[in-house]
Amino acid sequence: MLTDYQPLWLTLKLALITTVCLLAIGIPVAAILAQSKSKFKPFAEAIISLPLVLPPSVLGFYLLLAFSPNYGLGKILEATFNLRLVFSFTGLVISSIIYSLPFMVHPVQAGLEALPGSLRDASHTLGKSDITTFFRVLLPNIKPALLSGIVLTFAHTLGEFGLVLMIGGNIPGVTRVASIAIYDEVEALNFNTAHVYAAILLVVSFSILLTVYLTNKRLFKQVVA
Amino acid sequence: MLTDYQPLWLTLKLALITTVCLLAIGIPVAAILAQSKSKFKPFAEAIISLPLVLPPSVLGFYLLLAFSPNYGLGKILEATFNLRLVFSFTGLVISSIIYSLPFMVHPVQAGLEALPGSLRDASHTLGKSDITTFFRVLLPNIKPALLSGIVLTFAHTLGEFGLVLMIGGNIPGVTRVASIAIYDEVEALNFNTAHVYAAILLVVSFSILLTVYLTNKRLFKQVVA
Amino acid sequence: MIKISVRKKLHLAHGSSMLSVDAELPAQAFTALYGPSGAGKTTLLKIIAGLLQPEEGIIEVNGETWLNTHRKINMPIQKRSIGFVFQDFALFPNMTVRENLLYALPNRKQTDVIESLLTKVHLKNLANRKPDTLSSGQKQRVALIRALMRKPQLLLLDEPLSALDDAMRQHLQQELTSFYQEYGMNVLIVSHHLPEIIKLSNQVLQLEGGQLIKAGTPDMLFNLEQNPDQLQLIGEVLSVDEQQVKLWVEHSMISIPLSDNTALWKAGDKVTIACHTRDLRFKKLS
Amino acid sequence: MIKISVRKKLHLAHGSSMLSVDAELPAQAFTALYGPSGAGKTTLLKIIAGLLQPEEGIIEVNGETWLNTHRKINMPIQKRSIGFVFQDFALFPNMTVRENLLYALPNRKQTDVIESLLTKVHLKNLANRKPDTLSSGQKQRVALIRALMRKPQLLLLDEPLSALDDAMRQHLQQELTSFYQEYGMNVLIVSHHLPEIIKLSNQVLQLEGGQLIKAGTPDMLFNLEQNPDQLQLIGEVLSVDEQQVKLWVEHSMISIPLSDNTALWKAGDKVTIACHTRDLRFKKLS
Amino acid sequence: QKLQVAVAANAQFVAKMLVKEFKKETGIKADLIVGASGKLTTQIEQGAPFDIFLSADTKYPDELYAKKLTLNKPKIYAYGSLVMWSKKNISVAKGIRSLTNPAIQKIAVANPTLAPYGEATMQALKATGLATTLQPKLVFGESIAQVNEYLLSGNVDVAFTAKSVVLDMTQKNKGNWKEVDARLYKPIAQGVAILKNSTGKNLVHAQRFYKFLFSREARSIFTIYGYKF
Ligand SMILES: Nc1ncnc2c1ncn2[C@@H]1O[C@H](COP(=O)(O)OP(=O)(O)OP(=O)(O)O)[C@@H](O)[C@H]1O
Ligand SMILES: Nc1ncnc2c1ncn2[C@@H]1O[C@H](COP(=O)(O)OP(=O)(O)OP(=O)(O)O)[C@@H](O)[C@H]1O
Ligand code: MOO
Ligand SMILES: [Mg+2]
Ligand SMILES: [Mg+2]
């Protein structure tokens, strides 16, 4: 049986774009949370962690309504940009970003919070601005955490399923990602095709995780030794 | 319209049982990983983290094969214990345990690893066994991490969807948990009922997370002040 | 000249208390900050650097106002001309020794400053090493010269020499003194090692429970010029018998014959012991 | 009697080296472990406690074999009769002071030991406080009496008095000596404070780069003579100028004229000071 | 235990009425498990504890019969009809041809590999020769049910669904609909079978429900929902 590799490529593309976007969004969010002493911080943290615990069907339902060109946001987008987010790759990217946000923010925030406060203070006493301090001192010293964030985001997006099932529309080449393809093939009793997809995803996910854990150990050793 | 609260109770029951089981399983696993220096540790860590990144449809597919009374394990279970794990509550509990394992193991392991090694050493030099040391010194000092583990596991099980969809089906009172009920109600075009379920899950999940973040801060303050 | 006048609430072990310090230090003073653990020494240093905010306070350094809560002046840390040596060194682990110094240098072209300072503290060979591969004494020296890169008006040192073996301690004391003289700056050093304070500083601030309880020159504070020809000790009578009195003095025992003077002594009595320096015999320890 | 003979690879800053110590200590010795930072002091203590494994070694304490790599004997930490005071105290944050002590007590009924020791170190009032609310001096005292709960044959102390102010340091020195005498145990203390070593210990092991370079009594190692007609003190040279040498001795400063003897002295040198008792003048304190 | 009725998504509304009527007559309660016919078939093969299966075609029940997972040879209980359902402001009066209207951006179709109504839709599109032209507009739902959801939430402009759905829904005044020319697709013959899984009391109940499906009362309900015989 000939296997269609398009869902795998699509998944890869989605994971890559999501990860890049989340680098740009997640790092500033993590940085702000890490140094915040505001009493609203726990609220912000709870909101960011929500995708971690909320059923994809709940999130999917709300996104379905939010993106619908019949109502509010979706209506505005359609009217002004002629942009329809449901059943589009852009919609998947946006929902993946929401869904994987905690996977980027958590490790980076934890990394920043674990840095001794004296590093930031020392940079300040040397006359350096917050921005310089962040990019030249703080960020380079949380490489393992940053790596974890990138990898977890990437791998978690590879595994996105429930959300795509609800708002993707199973369009080949656009929203038919690997996890959906597997579901479909299983339901259609094409176990062989499902086996191929599942095995590939399993191997990729495992390799990524193993690399992180092996590398983290190595990175950690570099710091200690 | 009258709302059927059974899916919510079922979800609660599933989350509770899973959390209790994972306390019993996750804590020893975390304890072993935290003190392991084996070169296989990264492999074990990668396997435990797999559910974090694997599509629920992949995991669901493999569990379906494992649990199916047509093949191997499932056949043996059916033949010897007359136990069928697909489309059963027990099956859901087992798959939830697998699925939420990293949510219990990660925080507890991180908590244990962050404890100064001298606490364990000190207890040993006072003549105390590993078990005594673990339960009287180590565990009581990672309360915030333990709480995080419990809460994340609970909340994450509340949100389980893809796996249940694949191996649970949608059997009222047995496997029709809230996340599936939402999906179903949306498909049955009962948007109002879906709204009620979604809102309840949203509020519950958010409250749980907020409590963790507020409490963690307080617990943390207790330690510091 | 440095003028400090700050009030800050402290959460001490026995309840909350107030850090309250009013002091004026002459220009180019080498000032020691002295006092028991938890007295507020680190807190005071951080307030001066701008790393902590007092509820109320005025800090003026060489005529420039760094802080004035009444006039709502609070100069950013970056603008204050300070060098801070942290208790944990705070070297940047991602940079080599030279990169740490280069980062701190305001004018990136004047790298000859770096080379000359590296040579002065005998670290030239280690310039390309990462901080984590250095011994603690080496780290301390890097932290010190990194703090000097900006040629600060005020150098703040938080127990920079505690928990070091004697040889290393003395080496760094010498370097510190020579930098102080060469750069003509103000130094504020936290230390609880009395001989070190006396050796290095010309001003002492003594803190206790957040209060400045004494301030002045080391001579004044420790009564050094009192009687430099006399060694004064305190001992305790251990036993008195027919022939002799046994005394416990500074962890060793001496015995002296009975005399009129000792007639009324009994065990437990405290005794002052004095000796003229001409009667002392000295020998250098190797 | 304690017999130690261990070999362990160390990863030093300048490459790898070997910790290699062969020593025999008499019964009930108060032994000081002395040497520069990174010499391997903490490592040796941890090997004796069983917290680290040497590649090769024999440890025997009072006739009992704790470790013999040749005979594949390795007594579990829990079975070794030790008390260990860690550099970071390692008090259990979840327990109050009394609970920390109770946890360490082998026989949970003999709580009167706890009360008497608490009284002895002036901590009775703080018995129900959590460690985090204690000052570091208080923490140190709790760590010390907690280590005594098992009445160990060997007390291991890792720089227990560094970074403390003088008053606290002296108080703990006295308590340490009295426990040592009362319990009749062996003590092994890491310290780089010479006067402390001489005051407290009767055996000294000097480590450098992992090698045991000297061992013996403090008298032998530091050339001190014991003599009840002699008062023996240790001082530190504060400054040397054209006319005089200033010395810091037991909290006061003395100055002596230059002489041949003092010609080579420089600031920071440690000096023994001796005085015959006939040259001392005594006065009872009222 | 309640009777477990697995029902193809197109019949979810009619089945609800049937179950209600069945309970009124016999006092036997039943649960509905709704899904695409193909998905339900797979679940039955995996050992799902259903008693009776109302499919959207005969292919899937026959497949189960061939694998000896049904108690009887499947029987046709009704014929369904495919309709086009559109949002309020979009007209589908001209049938499939109206789909070329540029105002129609998205068209929902049930997954043809799992849902017979989806299969029928693709047949109709091909027969009209518009399959390739419309391809970029198509989105696929898991079953008829998801297709309905996409239209009702406003995310698609037209949905291919079952007549029973629009008859249930248009009472609530939700958009326009037009029947697809029945010559464009193979008749949708919907089969039912009692499953091997059903035992004891449930089997008795399943058999009564099976019989009830072919009763006059049931037939009149099917007729209300636009099914033919
Ligand atoms: N940011 C702060 N706000 C209020 N109180 C503080 C703050 N930081 C520390 N304290 C408290 O103030 C007291 C003084 O702390 P500080 O670190 O200044 O002491 P220190 O004199 O440097 O002691 P040590 O010799 O142990 O370093 C301590 O009891 C501490 O708990
Ligand atoms: N488990 C270990 N295995 C091998 N080498 C070690 C180990 N632990 C520490 N070392 C190295 O051995 C050397 C001695 O360390 P140790 O902590 O014993 O020194 P120390 O004499 O206690 O120094 P300090 O006075 O700074 O506490 C150090 O260079 C350290 O990097
Ligand atoms: O009723 Mo179906 O099985 O979705 O065509
Ligand atoms: Mg301090
Ligand atoms: Mg040490």
UniProtKB/TrEMBL annotation, chains A, B:
Predominant cellular place of this UniProt entry's protein: membrane
InterPro entries: MetI-like (IPR000515), MetI-like_sf (IPR035906), ModB_ABC (IPR011867)
Keyword field contains Cell membrane: yes
Transmembrane segments: 12-34, 46-65, 85-105, 194-214
Domain ABC transmembrane type-1: start-end pairs: 8-214
Localization per record: Cell membrane
PROSITE patterns: ABC_TM1
Record GO cellular component, one term: plasma membrane
One Pfam family from the record: BPD_transp_1
Topology of the protein relative to the lipid bilayer: Multi-pass membrane protein
One GO MF term: molybdate ion transmembrane transporter activity
Keywords: Cell membrane, Membrane, Molybdenum, Transmembrane, Transmembrane helix, Transport
Lipid metabolism in keyword set: no
Chain's role: Part of the binding-protein-dependent transport system for molybdenum; probably responsible for the translocation of the substrate across the membrane.
Family: Belongs to the binding-protein-dependent transport system permease family. CysTW subfamily.
Protein known as: Molybdenum transport system permease
Automatic annotation (TrEMBL), chains C, D:
SMART domains in the record: AAA
Span of domain ABC transporter: 1-234
Superkingdom of the source species: Bacteria
Keywords: ATP-binding, Nucleotide-binding, Transport
GO function terms (MF aspect): ATP binding; ATP hydrolysis activity
Gene3D superfamilies: P-loop containing nucleotide triphosphate hydrolases
One matching Pfam family: ABC_tran
Official protein name in the record: ATP-binding cassette domain-containing protein
Lineage: Bacteria, Pseudomonadati, Bacteroidota, Sphingobacteriia, Sphingobacteriales
